[in-house]
Amino acid sequence: MTSIALPTAVLLLVGGAVAVQSIGPAAAAETTLRAAAAQAGLFFGVAASPGRLSSIVGQEFNQLTPENDMKPSTIATSTGGLQNTGNADTLVNYAQTNNMLVRGHTMVWHSQAGALQGANQATLNTFIGNALNRWGNRIAYWDVVNEALDDNNTGRRRTQWPHSLNRDANGDGDFFDAGDTDVIRDSFIRAKQVVQAGGLTTKLCINDYDVEGLTVQGGTQNRKANALYDIVRNYRQYIDCVGFQAHFNDNPNSIITNDLQANIQRFADLGVEVHITELDIDDDLSNNDIGAGQAENYRKVVRACLNVAKCTGITVWGISDSESWRSSERGLLFTGSNGNYQKKAAYTAVLDELNKGRVPINPTSPNTPSSPSVSPTVSPTVSPTPSTGCTATVSLDSWTGGFVATVTVTAGTAPINGWNVLLTLPSGSTVTNSWNATRGGNSGAVQFSNLSYNGRVNTGQSTQFGFQGTGTATGLTPVCTAS
Ligand code: XIL
After folding, report:
1. Out of 60, 67, 273, 278, which one is annotated catalytic?
2. 411 within some domain
3. Are residues 159 and 265 in the same domain?
4. Peptide bond connecting 376 to the previous residue in cis, omega within 30 degrees of 0
5. Most ligand 1 atoms within 8 A of CB, residue of 52, 68, 321 to mutate
6. Which H helix or E strand runs over 189?
7. How far is the CA of 110 from the centre of ligand 1 (A)?
8. Contact present, 448 and 407 (Cβ < 8 Å)
9. Which pick of 63, 76, 108, 454 has the fewest CB atoms within 10 Å?
10. What's the whole-model pTM score?
11. Which residue's CA lies nearest to atom 13 of ligand 1?
12. Whether residue 41 is found in the same domain as residue 131
């Protein structure tokens, strides 16, 4: 009898557990950032130094970036050799022991260049090879090039070393031509060669700041982001990942915008992984155009990443406010110091948002359909006569060869329960991706309709959808029909 009773009890237990799960949430809420992130399929990391390796690092984070200890100012010799790698080794060992990924940071950078300052490409290449081979696959991601682009939204490269190595041979204003010299291209080519020769799995990233939104404050297009996009598009064969530093502060180019997700998406659509690499958010973002409140701002950034499958990791730039490089902005997830840390509201918001996973649980949250249905021919079913029920306006961010359009649908004098927007793209232009709408067609006349969660719009209120395309999209005249 005993030999029968035991399996029966086990079966009952299994059955009971299954029944409980089927009426509960899809997945249990995790209680650490790393567990919640892992459940959602991304890493959640932190920048650290050997002096900051308190137990919280391994408990809360599953990715580590050396805040300063892998910079050329610490580890490079003037001939591209390595020195003083002890702190970097400590961090890599700690990460390995605690099952954390490592991001190497950083190789080619105008700042903190140390003995490498002023080096030629050959010496940079020597350093790139030495750094990659020193840690091999123990480093999952390396920032090969950091902060290559100019400040103040010019959309241009920096001009100081190492970018002073650049030559625009045909004078056409870019460094992409075969005859040009480009330190970005040449550094990535070298890095890719080393990875391939060594059979490494290390992924090669380009990292920058003020590249987070499609726009900057006031709706001006983000030329710095567009320039980064052009670089990644041109050098896609050598570049595996893009880092948005995401040091959000009151600088008009450093704010959190509503189009952060669309910008992450357009890079992801190039096939690269996107990471938020150095996140901190000033707790007094008075210029922030999508609302104040540090915890809510953290939530928005995490949600934007979660909504794009190829946004595969978020790293905060330190543990605690007082130990941050920008301590006066109180931009991190913990207060306290020396291992005695307290969670802030921002921590709780991040954990909560991570626990919701990649698909928003709230059906009114924006969503990015992963594979929108596209019909090969267009048969518009709506009248092109403008309706009094709704109006639609388009705001456009364009770069060479591509664009992202954000369409705002506004209800008229009565609430609407659904909408259709018809617009005609210039010939030669093609929609490659859209979000917050269903779509019919991808060129010529293209029709967009509401999804279940954004069809109802109250009197005078608005909702937005967007799409990305190749070619141009100037002069669009959308026609909105309410249903
Ligand atoms: C910062 C460190 O946090 C500071 O400790 C150091 O004094 C200066 O550099 N962009 C980067 C990081 O890529 O390497 C910088 O880190 C912050 C801005």
Report:
1. 278
2. yes
3. yes
4. no
5. 68
6. helix 183-198
7. 12
8. yes
9. 454
10. 0.74
11. 146
12. yes
Q: Which two tokens stand for residue 399?
A: 């770069």
pLDDT on residue 414: 86
How many Å from the N-terminal Cα to the C-terminal Cα in the chain?
68
43 bridge partner residues:
313
Q: Does residue 13 lie within any of the structural domains?
A: no
Query: What pLDDT is stored for residue 388 in this prediction?
Result: 60
Find all residues with CB under 8 Å of 301, minimum gap 6, and list them: 246, 248, 256, 260, 276, 279, 281, 314
CATH number for the domain that contains residue 237: 3.20.20.80
Domain stops at, among 305, 338, 356: 356
Q: Can you give the residue range of the structural domain that contains 449?
A: 390-482
Q: Tell me: the pLDDT tens digits for 128-144? A: 999 999 999 999 999 99
CATH code where residue 411 lies: 2.60.40.290
3-state secondary structure 393-423: EEEEEEECCEEEEEEEEEECCCCECCEEEEE
- 106 upstream amide cis, omega within 30 of 0: yes
Atom 3 of ligand 1, nearest CA residue: 325
Higher pLDDT, 139 or 386: 139
Instruction: Please say if the pLDDT value at position 263 is more than 90.
Output: yes
Do 241 and 98 sit in the same domain of this protein? Answer: yes
Judging by beta carbons within 10 Å of its beta carbon (0-12, 13-18, 19+), is residue 372 exposed, middle or buried?
middle
150 shares its domain with 203: yes
The atom number, within ligand 1, closest to the CA of 143 reads: 13
Find the 377 Cα to ligand 1 centroid distance in Å: 51
Whether 294 is covered by a domain: the verdict is yes
Distance of alpha carbon 206 from alpha carbon 155, whole angstroms: 16
The two structure tokens encoding residue 169:
């041979």
Which residue lies with its CA nearest to atom 9 of ligand 1? 68
pLDDT digits (tens, 9 = 90+) for 100-127: 999 999 999 999 999 999 999 999 999 9
Question: Which of 312, 331, 356 marks a domain boundary?
Answer: 356
* Residues within 6 Å of ligand 1 by CB: 67-68, 146, 245, 278, 325
Angle at 151 between CA 186 and CA 234, to 5 degrees: 35
> Can 147 be counted among the known catalytic residues?
yes
148 and 292 part of one domain:
yes
Catalytic residue flag (residue 278): yes
